[in-house]
Every structure is written in structure tokens, then in C-alpha cells.
């Protein structure tokens, strides 16, 4: 278990988890992994979904510095997205790269910050809260992975300058807000 302000390393061999849950009513900062470590955090729910959960009462900020692998087999590609349900008031910063043949699904009212060159291949879906992107994308990787970005609610925000999300197309389905300078490839579609 970690205490406020501490770094929990994933080590050079990495770690496999089903879920990560943060429920802390003090404004501490937790860091998972270190940029100097080669180990990755692998999410493997064993047939069930996997996720990162920050509860309603959580005021803590969590920084994930390690790279993340979304466990994939030939039979489950695209079927087990990483669920990020963030309802706390602290930030969730993912500074490592996310890779795997799965997608990422964001719900909740909290703020998610993506700063990695992510290569998850089944798109990004957002139903609420705010997602901030802090790096540019290419056709091979980017903060929102590769593929379609479906915004069903909440805010998508560029931080640290103009952000080019070249590897993504955009689809809208609901009330959304876009803040800052973002550019996408292709055309946006209303669903």
C-alpha cells in the first residue's frame, strides 16, 4: 500500500493488475512507476474488464509514469477496453505510453491527462469529465491512441500548445466541449 506523496515502482520486471482504485479524501499525490524503470504495468482482467477507478470522495492526484500494456489475445482484441472511471477532484495523469489491441473508455466527472505516444488500437471513447491531451499525435501513435475518437459528453482540451491528433478521426454523440487548439485527420461525424 502507498502513502500520500510516495512513489510505487513497477520495477524493471513490471507488474500485472486487474484494476487500480484510488479512494483517498486528502489531496495527496501518488506516482506509479518511474520513468527510469523498464517494467510496464499490464492490465489483465482475465476475461472481465480492467480499469482505473477514482472514487467520488477521492481528492488525490495519481500519476502513472510507467508504460501500460492492455492484455490482448487473438480472441479478445477490441473486446476488453481499459475503463477509466474518474469521479474524484484530483487529476489522473498518464505519462507513460499505453499499447495493446484494446481501446480506452473514459467516464466520470474527473480530469484525465494523457501525455504519452499511445498505440492502443481500438479508439478512445469519452462519456464525461475532461480529457486533456499534452502531446501531438502521428498516424502511428498519439495521446488518444490510433483510431476513432468518440465524444459522448464532457470536454476534450489541448494543453501545452496546439495539438495535432493526426492518427484520429472524430465522432460526436451528445453534448461536448472542445477547448484549445486541436486538429484531427479526416472528417468529424455526428453519430
- What general form does the structure show? globular
How many helices? The count is 0
- Radius of gyration using CA atoms only: 16 Å
Q: Which oligomeric state applies?
A: single chain
What's the layout of helices and strands?
Elements lengths: L6 E2 L6 E3 L1 E4 L6 E4 L8 E3 L6 E5 L6 E4 L3 E3 L11 E5 L4 E4 L3 E3 L3 E4 L3 E4 L4 E2 L3 E3 L3 E4 L13 E5 L2 E5 L4 E3 L2 E5 L3 E4 L2 E3 L4 E2 L1
Parallel strand pairs: 1-4, 2-5, 3-6, 4-7, 5-8, 6-9, 7-10, 8-11, 9-12, 10-13, 11-14, 12-15, 13-16, 15-17, 16-18, 17-20, 18-21, 19-22, 20-23
How is this structure best described in words?
With 191 residues, the chain is mainly β. Helix content is 0%, strand content 44%. It has strands spanning 7-8, 15-17, 19-22, 29-32, 41-43, 50-54, 61-64, 68-70, 82-86, 91-94, 98-100, 104-107, 111-114, 119-120, 124-126, 130-133, 147-151, 154-158, 163-165, 168-172, 176-179, 182-184, 189-190. The strands form 4 sheets. It has an 8-stranded parallel beta sheet with strand order 1-4-7-10-13-16-18-21, with no helix packed on it. Strands 3-6-9-12-15-17-20-23 form an 8-stranded parallel beta sheet, with no helix packed on it. Strands 2-5-8-11-14 form a 5-stranded parallel beta sheet, with no helix packed on it. The chain is globular. The termini are far apart.
